[in-house]
Amino acid sequence: MAEPAGITGVKAGKPDASELYALVRAQAARLDVAADLRAAYESWVGFLSEEKRFSAHTVSAYAADLAHFLNFQAAHHGELPNLRRLSALTTADFRAWLAQRVGGGIKASSNARAVSVIRSFFRWLKKEDLADNTAAALLRRPKVPKSIPKALSASEAQDTLNTIGELSDEPWVARRDVALLLLLYGCGLRIGEALSLTFADAPGRGQDTMVITGKGNKQRMVPLLPVVTEAIADYLRSCPFEFTGNDSLFRGVRGGPMSARVIQKRIQSLRGLLGLPSTATPHALRHSFATHLLAGGGDLRAIQELLGHASLSTTQRYTDVDVESLLATYDQAHPRAQKK
Length: 340
Description:
Number of domains: 2
Low-confidence stretches: 7-15
Family: Belongs to the 'phage' integrase family. XerC subfamily.
Radius of gyration: 24 Å
Shape: elongated
CATH superfamily of the largest domain: Intergrase catalytic core
Subcellular location: Cytoplasm
Largest sheet: 2 strands, antiparallel
GO biological process, one term: cell division
Keywords: Cell cycle, Cell division, Chromosome partition, Cytoplasm, DNA integration, DNA recombination, DNA-binding
CATH architecture of the largest domain: Orthogonal Bundle
Order of helices and strands: HHHHHHHHHHEEHHHHHH
Mean pLDDT: 83
Subunit structure: Forms a cyclic heterotetrameric complex composed of two molecules of XerC and two molecules of XerD.
Helix content: 55-70%
Number of helices: 16
CATH topology of the largest domain: hpI Integrase, Chain A
Structural class: mainly alpha
Number of strands: 2
């Protein structure tokens, strides 16, 4: 079974309300549900967009998960579900839906998200006095294997920054790539955040902070090292294309917005050139930013703010990375760790 697709036509970033609602109504019209439940579905999606301020991508994914659940219940019971029927669903009904997803090969992380979506929907129904189901609150998320971010060592990160410019014969392209990677490693940006920057966002010389718009359209302020602002200034001076305020800061060789695939291929080339591990990707530089800050004594809460993590538990994964580094150092250097 393929993972439920999001609402077709929803663009990433902040959703346009009229466009989103039109797409949601089209999705709702395809649901095998009664009219009262269809109206509740549309209202809940509006709640996610307007009150929770979720991104269009997140709203699309959540709406698709809920649509899959409702359509499953229609087939499972052989009748159109309505709000009254939702209140009567049993633990077995929820487990049957989840078992179908697991049996269809949908990965644990997607199933965990879907369970959270369904629980959120039923909490909203109760709050709105539309339906109440105690079994939904007892639904448990599948355990998701804990992944530890793969960071580069300080020397590997430095070698990457020093060498990336050598992969291009065009001086302005070389300066562009250096500036981009410095934003990832020097500021902890996601590749999508860096590539979404416009010319108006470019820091002036001497500017020491920048406002970044991350996931869920949440903004955060990140400090800028002088080497980062200088690299961006050098790139802009050498770039052959004209810029206006809303133009993409990072441009492709034909003048359009730069694609993430371009820098991904550059890093892939560096893996062979520098002997970097297979986990060396543009995103690994963001992991390296956090890991190296933590190793240097950085406060976990401060690192959470710099990364734009909504939950501290997400940032705490980097403590595991640092422990691995400490253990490796101990095994290599401590006399008591040497094998006899």
